[in-house]
Design brief:
about 325 residues, Cytochrome Bc1 Complex, Chain D, domain 2, 2 domains, about 45% helix, about 0% strand
Length: about 325
C-alpha cells in the first residue's frame, strides 16, 4: 500500500474501506491529471520556506487523501465526500476571521486543522503537536499562494507570448512578490466590539434583522428552508444548502464569537455574504440565531469537541 493509501486508511473507517476497495479493483482508477508539459508552472517551480517544507510531510500523511497531491481537492476520497474537500489553490476559504473576499490568516487555517469542520468529513487533529499544526497550515497557505501566482504566470505567458523558461529567467521574482503583496493587502482580523448581554429586547431586535436579511435563505424558523434555499449555488456552480440553525451544527464553531465572525466575514465562494450592520446589530442577530437551536437538554458541548477543549466541559 502506498503512503497515500496508508494515510487514508488511518483517517476514518469509511476512507479506509474506500482504499481497500480501490486496492481490490472494486473501484475504477481515475488519474489525478495528465503529466504536466514542460511549459506548465508546477509546484516544482515553487520555493517553500522551512515551515512549509516541514508541513508538506505532514500534509502527505494526513491531508493528501482528500485534498489531493497539489491541494486541488481531488484526492482519492474526494468523490465520495459531501461537501467536497477544499481546493486550496482556488483561494476560496469559507471559514476565516478576515474581511469578505479576502484570504484567511494562518491562525484561521490552524483553527480548522485543530478543530475540524463539524458536519463534514474534515476531522479534527487535536493530537498533532502545535509545531506540526503550524507547519501543515503554512504548507496549505503556500498552496494558496502558489495558486494565485500560477494564474498570474499563465496570464503573463499568454499575454506576452513568453515561454515559461523566459519568464522564470526574467520578471518571475518581481511578479511573485507583487502578486503576494496584493493578495495580503487587506488581510487582517475583523474587529469585534464587546458582546452585549442577551435580553428580550435584543432578541426581538435580532429577529427583525434576521427576517430582513436571513429568512429568505435560512427560513423563518431557521431550518434552511427559505424561499431561495433550492436555488443557491457555490463558486463551482454546485448546489449548496443554507445552514439549519436549529440543529446546532455550525461548521466552524458554535460559540457566539464563531457565529458573529461568520456573519461579519461572510463565506467566500458561497451565496452567504458579509452581513451589513454595526457590531451591536450583528451581536443581536447572533444571539437570535443561537436562540433557534433546539434545546440539547443542557448537555453542553460534546467532550471531544473543540468547543469543549477551548471552553472546558459543562458542569
Amino acid at each position: 500500500m502506498t503512503t497515500q493509501g496508508r494515510a487514508l486508511w488511518r483517517t476514518t473507517p469509511i476512507l479506509g474501506l474506500t482504499c481497500a476497495m480501490a486496492a481490490l479493483g472494486m473501484l475504477p482508477f481515475v488519474p489525478f491529471a495528465s503529466e504536466p508539459s514542460e511549459e506548465a508552472f508546477t509546484l516544482e517551480h515553487w520555493e517553500l520556506d522551512d515551515s512549509a517544507t516541514r508541513g508538506a510531510a505532514v500534509y502527505a500523511q494526513y491531508c493528501i487523501g482528500c485534498h489531493g497531491p497539489t491541494g486541488l481537492g481531488n484526492g482519492d476520497a474526494a468523490e465520495f465526500l459531501d461537501p467536497k474537500p477544499r481546493n486550496f489553490q482556488s483561494g476560496n476559504f469559507k471559514f476565516r476571521s478576515t474581511p469578505s473576499g479576502e484570504l484567511p490568516l494562518l491562525a484561521d487555517i490552524e483553527h480548522v486543522v485543530r478543530c475540524g469542520l463539524e458536519g463534514s468529513a474534515m476531522r479534527r487533529f487535536p493530537l498533532l503537536p502545535d509545531s506540526q499544526v503550524r507547519d501543515v497550515s503554512r504548507y496549505v497557505q503556500s498552496l494558496v499562494e502558489f495558486g494565485l501566482v500560477r494564474r498570474e504566470v499563465e496570464y503573463v505567458m499568454d499575454d506576452d507570448d513568453l515561454t515559461l523558461a523566459e519568464l522564470l529567467e526574467g520578471d518571475y521574482e518581481e511578479l511573485r512578490e507583487e502578486t503576494l503583496v496584493d493578495a495580503y493587502e487587506y488581510v487582517w482580523r475583523v474587529g469585534m466590539d464587546e458582546r452585549p448581554e442577551v435580553d428580550e429586547d435584543g432578541l426581538a431586535f435580532g429577529r427583525e434583522l434576521y427576517e430582513a436579511q436571513c429568512a429568505a435563505c435560512h427560513g423563518a424558523t431557521g431550518r434552511g428552508e427559505g424561499a431561495s434555499a433550492n436555488a443557491l449555488r457555490d463558486y463551482k456552480d454546485a448546489e449548496i444548502r443554507p445552514r439549519d440553525f436549529t440543529s446546532g451544527v455550525f461548521r466552524a464553531g458554535s460559540r457566539a464569537e464563531d457565529v458573529f465572525i461568520r456573519l461579519k466575514s461572510g463565506l467566500n465562494g458561497t451565496p452567504m455574504p458579509a452581513v451589513s450592520g454595526t457590531d451591536e446589530e450583528l451581536w443581536h442577530l447572533t444571539h437570535y440565531i443561537l436562540s433557534l437551536v433546539v434545546d440539547d437538554g443542557g448537555r453542553g458541548p460534546h467532550p471531544t469537541s473543540c468547543a469543549c477543549i477551548e471552553e472546558g466541559p459543562a458542569r
